[in-house]
Design brief:
Distance between the termini: 45 Å
CATH class of the largest domain: Alpha Beta
Number of domains: 2
Helix content: 40-55%
Number of strands: 12
Shape: elongated
Oligomer: single chain
Order of helices and strands: HEHEHEHEEHHEHHEHEHEHEEEHHHH
Radius of gyration: 22 Å
Number of helices: 15
CATH topology of the largest domain: D-Maltodextrin-Binding Protein, domain 2
Structural class: alpha/beta
CATH superfamily of the largest domain: Periplasmic binding protein-like II
Length: 332
C-alpha cells in the first residue's frame, strides 16, 4: 500500500510539474501610442502578466482608441487590448455604427473596473446666468438652441454625449434643428472655445484629474450639471455604471455629482486558451497593488467586483470566470 501511495504521489507531482510548465503563450497587446494613458495601463498589465511562467506579452501601438479596439480582437489582429465596458458591450451586441465598428461576437473580457472615469457634463456659468437652465433635461424640454462642443467622431467622449442626449430622445441633428450648434473637435480646442464663451456646454468621458478640464475650471467659471435620476438609470441600461465625483474635484463644484462611467477593461478572444486566460486573470487580481503603484488610476481596480457585467461590458472568458468562481468573487 505504501509503495502504491508513493507511486500515486510521484505521478501527481509529475503531472503538477507538467501542468506548471505547459503554458507557452506569446501574446501581442495592442495599445495606443507611447505617452497616452492607455499605454501606461498596458505597460503595468504587461509587467504583472509576464510574471506567469510560459506567458510573454509584447506591446504594439496598433490601437487608435478604446472605442474601436474590440475589432482588433474580433479580426484577430491582437491577443490583448484595452477598451471600456460600454463600447465592449455595444461592439459585442451588434457593433458601433457611428464609430464604424462591426459586430464583435467573439470578444471576451478578463477583468473590468480598471480605472474610475465618468461622464462629465458642464455648462458655462455665463450660459446658466443668461438662460436660467441648469439641467440637460430642462434644456431638452425647452428645445433650447444650445452651442454644444464635444470630442471627435469615434471617441468615447463623442459617444457619451450621443448617449446622454439619446436616452432623452434627442439626436445631434435635433439640436441643430432647434438652431443650436454641435461642434466636434479636439480636447484643447474644446477647452479654449469654452473659455472664450464660443460654446455653452460640453459632454465628455474623462477622469477626475483630466488636464484640459482642470485647466478650464481653474481659468473659467463653469457649472457642473447633475443628470436626473431617470437619465442616469437609462444610461446604466446602455452599459454605464454609477460613479460619484466628490465635491471640490473641479473649482466651484460645491456638491457631489452622481454620474455614470464606463471603466477600462482587458479584452481577449473567446478562442484564447482557457488556462492562459485563467493565469492572466489570476496575475492581475493577485498583483493589484503593483498595478496601482505603477498607475494611480488602477487603484480603483477591485478583483472582487471586476468580473461583474457592469464593469466587463461583454461576456467573461471562461478561464477568467473560473478564477472568479474559485475565489468567490462576483462574476457574470
Amino acid at each position: 500500500m505504501k509503495k502504491f501511495l508513493s507511486v500515486l504521489l510521484t505521478l501527481a507531482l509529475v503531472l503538477t510539474a507538467v501542468s506548471a510548465f505547459a503554458l507557452d503563450a506569446d501574446l501581442s497587446f495592442a495599445t495606443q501610442e507611447t505617452g497616452t494613458a492607455g499605454y501606461s495601463y498596458a505597460t503595468a498589465i504587461q509587467t504583472v502578466v509576464q510574471k506567469v511562467d510560459g506567458i510573454n506579452v509584447t506591446l504594439t501601438t496598433d490601437s487608435d482608441g478604446n472605442v474601436s479596439s474590440p475589432w482588433l480582437i474580433q479580426n484577430e489582429d491582437t491577443d490583448l487590448t484595452m477598451s471600456n465596458s460600454a463600447p465592449a458591450k455595444w461592439a459585442a451586441e451588434g457593433g458601433i455604427e457611428s464609430a464604424q465598428v462591426p459586430a464583435c461576437p467573439d470578444v471576451r473580457c478578463i477583468a473590468g473596473g480598471l480605472g474610475n472615469d465618468f461622464i462629465n457634463v458642464m455648462f458655462t456659468q455665463k450660459f446658466v446666468d443668461e438662460t436660467g437652465i441648469t439641467t440637460v433635461e430642462e434644456l431638452v424640454e425647452k428645445k433650447y438652441p444650445v452651442k454644444l462642443v464635444i470630442k471627435k467622431n469615434g471617441t468615447l467622449g463623442e459617444l457619451a454625449a450621443e448617449k446622454v442626449f439619446g436616452v432623452l430622445g434627442v439626436t445631434f441633428d435635433d439640436i441643430v434643428s432647434w438652431g443650436g450648434v454641435v461642434e466636434k473637435t479636439g480636447g484643447s480646442q474644446i477647452k479654449d472655445g469654452l473659455m472664450d464663451d464660443l460654446y455653452d456646454m460640453t459632454v465628455d468621458h474623462i477622469g477626475a484629474t483630466q488636464s484640459n478640464t482642470t485647466e478650464l475650471t481653474i481659468s473659467h467659471d463653469m457649472y457642473d450639471v447633475q443628470l436626473g435620476e431617470e437619465t442616469l438609470k437609462l444610461l446604466c441600461a446602455e452599459g454605464f455604471d454609477y460613479v460619484t465625483v466628490p465635491a471640490g474635484n473641479w473649482r466651484l463644484q460645491e456638491n457631489d455629482i452622481l454620474t455614470v462611467g464606463s471603466q477600462q477593461c482587458l479584452l481577449v478572444s473567446a478562442n484564447m486558451d482557457d488556462e492562459v486566460a485563467y493565469e492572466i486573470t489570476k496575475a492581475l487580481c493577485e498583483n493589484k497593488d503593483e498595478l496601482a503603484n505603477q498607475v494611480a488610476a488602477l487603484s480603483a481596480f477591485n478583483p472582487e467586483k471586476s468580473g461583474s457585467l457592469a464593469l466587463t461590458g461583454c461576456q467573461l472568458h471562461p478561464g477568467a470566470a473560473r478564477y472568479y468562481e474559485e475565489m468567490g468573487y462576483a462574476h457574470e
